[in-house]
Write a structure and sequence with these properties.
Blueprint: H1 3-10, E1 22-31, H2 33-43, E2 46-47, H3 53-62, E3 69-75, E4 82-85, E5 110-115, E6 123-127, E7 132-138, E8 144-151, H4 153-163, E9 166-167, H5 170-178, E10 189-190, E11 195-196, E12 207-214, E13 216-218, E14 242-245, E15 251-254, E16 260-267, E17 269-276, H6 278-288, E18 291-292, H7 298-307, E19 315-323, E20 328-331, E21 353-358, E22 365-369, E23 374-379
Keywords: Disulfide bond, Signal
InterPro entries: C-type_lectin-like, C-type_lectin-like/link_sf, C-type_lectin_CS, CTDL_fold
Protein name: C-type lectin domain-containing protein
Length: about 375
């Protein structure tokens, strides 16, 4: 590594506290949803976007008075519903959908996904308030699967998020359905007490999976599919088109013209749509913003990968750098690389390498020669 670059990295902008890629603000003013949206856009970034259970906890800690507060999720009457996976950060690909014949059938009350026979690999939609068995999943690499007792889809989602990772979604479901009778014994599916035989799954009428459809969108235009509805959620309501957090931290729909306080957020991440080398990107971020972005956990990963959807290059630079002298990867913000999302095993024997994120697919990290030119992500 060139001495000047090495010194530049050492003089990095360090965080004196745990850095957050977005920050929430409670505004104690009663406004309609549209008025709250305008206020947040004038004073901060936008009405609050919520992407994970970690965000839910942050909002609950702020909402000490346990009152109803607007967030940035809304719907437009007449807008077609789109499909999403329950697992945060996992984008739904319509071209890979496996709907059964005549499904989804357009019934507005049927917005949650299920499978009728796990070996047929076909999906159907059901009412979220029906009760059914369901499949949870733990982790994404070498996952384990768990079969739950009958619950509504929302109760099943809460159960999976509390006890495992989430309802089975996307690649996890595809991986499970690859197995046939010969290899099925390597997959263990559990209810609360006993092992469930693979072949016996066909005896269950329906099994909920982590698939749902809705017409809700975030005020800032982000595509996060995370939802945290309460038990009284009614997807077919034509009047309640805006979302608020209730005293228990759950979400409810309300008429947008009703007035209440609200959550705004400030975004501390920005995509730069210019193609530069890694060193040029580092100089740019430190001169115009704060630094090249640091990703310390899965929630950071999801927040950053959302920004990449508007990139014009196949990768975006991050603040990852490899030192040949010491033989390890590090963040230029001086954070230790604990959380990792590499596309392949780390190549520790290559110099002049920096870390970039894929702008499509699973948004994995890759090691690329620092002289390549890509868009990049700055922290603010």
């Amino acid at each position: 590594m060139k001495l000047s670059l090495f010194l530049l990295i050492l003089i990095g902008h360090f965080c004196l506290f745990t850095c957050q890629l977005h920050e929430y603000h409670y505004v104690d003013q009663n406004k309609t949803w549209a008025e709250a949206q305008q206020h947040c856009r004038d004073e901060y970034t936008d009405l609050a976007t919520v992407s994970s259970m970690a965000d839910i906890e942050r909002l609950r800690n702020i909402n000490s008075e346990k009152i109803e507060i607007w967030i940035g999720l809304f719907s437009i009457t007449g807008t077609n519903a789109t499909s999403h996976w329950s697992l945060p950060g996992l984008q739904f690909n319509e071209s890979q959908a496996k709907w059964n014949t005549n499904e989804p059938n357009g019934i507005t009350s049927e917005t949650c996904g299920a499978i009728e026979d796990i070996k047929k690999k076909e999906w159907l939609d059901m009412s979220c308030m029906d009760t059914s068995n369901f499949l949870c999943c733990n982790g994404s690499s070498s996952p384990k699967y768990y079969l739950g007792d009958k619950m509504t889809w929302f109760d099943a989602q809460r159960y999976c998020r509390k006890n495992h990772t989430d309802l089975i979604s996307g690649p996890q479901l595809e991986e499970l359905q690859k197995h046939n009778d010969v290899t099925a014994n390597i997959i263990q599916l559990y209810d609360r007490t006993s092992v469930v035989n693979w072949n016996s799954l066909s005896s269950y009428k329906y099994i909920f999976i982590g698939l749902f459809r809705d017409a809700w969108t975030w005020s800032d235009g982000s595509s996060f599919s995370f939802r945290h509805w309460n038990l009284k959620y009614n997807s077919s309501s034509e009047k309640n088109n805006c979302t608020m957090v209730n005293e228990d931290g759950m979400w409810e729909t309300r008429e947008c013209n009703s007035k209440r306080s609200f959550f705004c957020y400030t975004d501390h991440v920005i995509l730069i749509n210019e193609s530069r080398t890694w060193e040029e990107a580092l100089y740019y971020c430190r001169h115009h913003h704060h630094d090249l972005v640091t990703i310390t956990n899965l929630d950071d990963q999801r927040w950053v990968q959302e920004k990449t959807k508007n990139a014009t290059t196949p990768y975006v630079w991050t603040g990852l750098r490899y030192t040949c002298t010491l033989g390890f990867w590090f963040w230029v913000s001086d954070e230790v690389v604990r959380y990792k999302n590499w596309a392949s095993p780390e190549q520790v024997n290559e110099c002049d390498m920096s870390g970039a994120m894929e702008t499509g697919g699973e948004h994995k990290w890759v090691k690329i020669n620092a002289e390549e030119k890509f868009n990049f992500i700055c922290s603010k």
